[in-house]
Amino acid sequence: MHNQPFPVRENPWLPFQLAPTSVQLAIHSLPVYDMPHQEEHLFSCLSNFILNSKDVAISAAHFLNLNSQSCIEKYSYSVVVNVQPDSVQTMLLSIYIYSNSRTVEKVCSSSPITQYQKCWKYRHVKPLCKAESPICPLCSLQHSKAEHCCLNPSCPSGSNLKAILNCCLAYPARYSNCGRAHSARSRDCPEGPPSTNARV
Prior knowledge:
Strand order of the largest sheet: 2-3-1-5-4
CATH class of the domain at 23-106: Alpha Beta
Shape: elongated
Structural class: alpha+beta
Helix content: 10-25%
Radius of gyration: 25 Å
Mean pLDDT: 75
CATH architecture of the domain at 23-106: 2-Layer Sandwich
Number of helices: 3
Number of strands: 5
């Protein structure tokens, strides 16, 4: 039975391609009047300018704001270009293009449910976080969750020995981003995405 021939359709995984190794960089404050409004024309418009300014070849370009119609209504906007990893330092922190210096920075991927576990903000990643100290996800004070313990020596829940949410009236839960009485990982937080499957 195992030696029977089976009809084989075209393999969706072919041809084999290596995973992309390029790095995404955002170029800010590009003038709308000098740039195309259609995303498909961005690459041809930017590639020569960047090559002449920084001697760096880009492999792709797109609007940072995917809604190109909103770009038309602005005076300037940002685009994202893909470069090879060894060109990143050459491109950062600015580029002289369109008769002016434009800010260049690395693009940090995030989604509506991305939550950085130092400050507990949504759509936040480590490179963007400016918090100097960790924020407790249980009480919003400046300490880690591991360091959270109730200051009430007679805490009925024993939270003076381990981290417990809402252990007693002396130490209520509080989320720093909305100020409400729940943990930073609550799925009912108005600051969080509606589909968050976080746990308390």
